[in-house]
Structure formats: structure tokens, C-alpha cells
């Protein structure tokens, strides 16, 4: 009897059940992570070798190829099987070249999938038995913490919080910090510093291919002591980078910076989802009005549904002193979440934006600056929790190794 670890990759979660059914095992004997980037995280942190990653039809082709390339470098003993719900026109050779072991057309029934996974397991265990060990290269040393800020409603104060939080973290910790604008369409992180992005999307994405410390620093803009900003000018003609490429870029950033604070886009774009996969903390921000709070509730539900763990989320109420008939306890009661910070409304915020100098630097003793600094203090502590407590992706990342028995 042989045991192997098999991990289903990609939404929906029911893909895991589908895979388990076709392997004739229990669903909890198969691991699951929600995306290609989450699978890369799992490979980096896995306690033991993973034999096979089985990619759901929802995993996009560029992400699958990027994952295959990552596996080739970091975990060459892991096999990849792709499941499609249509014929993979013309891309099969690319998949094979990338090292994907099999592409299974789900419309042909589940037997083909079982055979493909079993072949992949045999291949992986043969490889191990002849001593081709999984690479232990984990991208080198200590890695930084990614904190992302999200709101599905525009104008909630996402960029205000991202930029000020990044300044406060750099100040409180005295450590090098990066602030990243992932809102490639309409980002305005640089405006808060009164400057323009110095690089373009290809420059940023190229950092994911093993850039050196000097190269990483040269593509960013130093905006204040210990703080570098990363982003690209909006270019409506540019194609959005693949989620998996964003994952590599963010990992390069966190390899070089102890803290990376990210302004994620307003929608559930690939880049935002990848950013959440890699974030230790996801800060959901809303203003105190019924529409904003509704958006927050929906965002939390959506993100929990795709497999992000609840303990990763923090809730920030912005302009929380407004006398608008809602308060934090209403939000906590309705949403069943704890509010982690309340940031007052202040005219110093638009004033500092117009000056191009974040309010935590410009008016450090103002109430609004103090509130952000306190939040930074909490985040720095929270991010100091050992990795195995907070760095998990879905439940696949938490398990040492999933096994299924094969006769
Ligand atoms: N606490 C606050 N007090 C006063 N004004 C604020 C506060 N927070 C944000 N603002 C103002 O609200 C406006 C929107 O803030 P911000 O740009 O951070 O929103 P956003 O969520 O990033 O919006 P977008 O969806 O356009 O990216 C800005 O003019 C900002 O100065
Ligand atoms: Mg913004």
C-alpha cells in the first residue's frame, strides 16, 4: 500500500470533493488551496513533499503555466495534473513544455482523472526513490509580512489608510517598508506622496524573476525614511498581469522588505485575490454608512467563501466619529465581526493629500494620525505572531500533508 499527498488547487471548493470522489477516497484525504499562488505558498511552507497538485478548470492557463514553472524550480518532485472542462485547444504542447504531467478533459468522465493522478503519484514517488529530492530552496531567509487594504466600495479611504499605515509602520518599527499600489487602473498611492510612479508594469513584474536587492530598490521610489513606493502609471492599453505573476512580484517584495503594505484594487481582480492569498492581514475598510457597511459584509462573505481564513481579516471604520446614526457596535452586531480600529474624520486628511505628505508625517499629533499609528502598532504585533499561526491558505496550508491510500 502506498500513501501519497494530493492537493486540489482552485475554486470552487467542491472541486476537492469531485477529485476525492474520482479517487474513491474521503474529501479530507485531499488537500485544498484556492489558487495557483496559494499552491506556491503551500509548496514553500509544506512540512513534507507534495506528490501531486491537481488544478481545477477555474485555474487560468497563464497561472497554471506560471505555477508549473515555479514547481520546476522549487519542488521538482511534485507533479501537476490539469483538469479542464473543455478541450485545451493548442495549449497542450505549452503545458507539456512547462512540465505539466497531464491534462484531463473532465467531460470524458472521472476515470481518466483517477488514472492521471495515479500515474502522477507513481512518477513522483519514483523520482523520490531515486533520490531527486524536492528543492529546499525557500526563497531565502526571513520573509516580510504583507498587509493588504481592501474595500469593494470606492472612496472608502483605502488609499488614505494604505499610505498612512505604511508610513506609520516604517516609523514605528524603523524597518524598511514597501507601499504597493496594485490598483493598476486608477491607483493614487503616489498622489498621497505628491509624486508619480517611476516604473511600469513590466519593470515591476520582472522583479518576480529573482531580482536582487539593488534592482528591487531601484524600481521603487523612496518616499520617506524607510519607506519605498511601488506602482505604475495607469495605462488603459496595457494588459493586466496574470495573477500568478503578481504573486511572484509580491513574494519578491516580501523577500526584501520586512513589511509590505498593499492598496488592493476595488474589485475582486486576479491581482487582488493573489494579494489576499499572500497577506497575513487583510484590512477591510469602510466608512460608517449603510451602503459601505453592506459592502464590507459582502466582501467578507465573498472572501471567506473562496477559502481565506477568518483570522486574517481586520475591520477598520473610517470617519468613525461622524454623527450619522450608526456606530461601531451596530457594525459589530450586524456583521458579527470585531472592529479593530476607528479612524476619525479630519479635514487634515484632504489637506495633507493636497500637500502630498501623509497626515501621520505632516501632523503626527493629530487625532487621525494617532489612530493610524495605534493601528500600525497592533498590526506590527499581530504580524509578529509565528508564521504557522497566521500564514495558511485555505485548509490545505494548515495540514502537514494530506494522504490517500492506494493499493
Ligand atoms: N478619515 C478621513 N477624514 C477626512 N477625509 C478622508 C478620510 N479618509 C479619507 N478621506 C478623503 O476621502 C477621499 C477618498 O479617500 P481615498 O482616496 O483614500 O479612498 P479610496 O478608497 O482609495 O478611493 P478609490 O476607490 O477611488 O481608490 C479622499 O479625498 C480622502 O482625502
Ligand atoms: Mg484609492
Please provide a written account of the structure.
This protein is of the alpha/beta class and 407 residues long. It folds into 2 domains: 2-138, 3-Layer(aba) Sandwich (Rossmann fold); 145-390, P-loop containing nucleotide triphosphate hydrolases (Rossmann fold, 3-Layer(aba) Sandwich). The chain has helices spanning 14-23, 36-45, 61-74, 92-97, 111-129, 158-173, 201-206, 213-219, 243-256, 270-278, 290-305, 328-335, 348-355, 359-362, 367-383, 387-390; strands at residues 2-4, 6-9, 31-33, 52-55, 79-84, 102-105, 145-150, 177-181, 221-224, 227-230, 259-263, 281-287, 313-318, 341-343, 404-406. The chain has an 8-stranded mixed β-sheet with strand order 9-10-8-11-7-12-13-14, sandwiched between helices. The model is unreliable at 132-140 and 383-407 (pLDDT under 50). Bound molecules: adenosine-5'-triphosphate and magnesium ion (MG). Adenosine-5'-triphosphate binds at residues 151, 154-160, 188, 266, 318-319, 343, 345-346, 349-350, 353, 368.
SS content category: alpha/beta
Largest sheet: 8 strands, mixed
**Rg from alpha-carbon coordinates:** 22 Å
State the CATH class of the largest domain.
Alpha Beta
The H-level CATH homologous superfamily of the largest domain, spelled out, is: P-loop containing nucleotide triphosphate hydrolases
- Can you tell me the CATH architecture of the largest domain? 3-Layer(aba) Sandwich
What's the total number of strands? 15
CATH topology group of the largest domain: Rossmann fold
Query: Which strands sit side by side, in order, in the main sheet?
Result: 9-10-8-11-7-12-13-14
